[in-house]
Design goal:
The protein is an alpha+beta fold. The chain is about 25% helix and about 15% strand. It has a single domain (about 25-105), classed as Trna Endonuclease, Chain: A, domain 1, CATH 3.40.1350.10.
Length: about 110
């Protein structure tokens, strides 16, 4: 996993950047193809269309939406992302893993590189 890594026995991180202690990061599995019945069940359970792919918590919510180069936000994402920002979250869209790593560093959510 690119963010929630473990340390090697010598104390160095298996991944870089490594999350800062106390930061919680997780993937939001909203995407994908679903049957109509499964989609209805998920909606009834509170799944919200447009939620970014990756969430990190550290005193506030930080979201990263991953798109392939040239990808665009869906209508649900275009509507929800400004609402998340208005509610106090930080939201960015990136088109590479390197850009996501750079953003975690900019937000001070990851430890300095080795």
């Amino acid at each position: 996993m690119w963010f929630n890594g473990d340390r090697y026995n010598d104390g160095t991180w298996k991944i870089e950047p490594a999350k800062r202690p106390g930061v919680i990061g997780f993937h939001v599995p909203n995407g994908g193809t679903r049957s109509a019945i499964e989609g209805k069940r998920l909606k009834q359970s509170g799944v919200l269309a447009g939620v970014p792919d990756w969430c990190m918590l550290w005193g506030r919510c930080f979201f990263i939406e991953f798109k392939k180069p040239g990808g665009v936000l869906s209508p649900a994402q275009t509507a929800l992302h400004p609402a998340l920002i208005a509610a106090g979250a930080w939201v960015v869209t990136v088109d590479s893993l390197e850009a996501a790593k750079a953003q975690t560093r900019a937000w001070d959510l990851s430890l300095p590189g080795r």
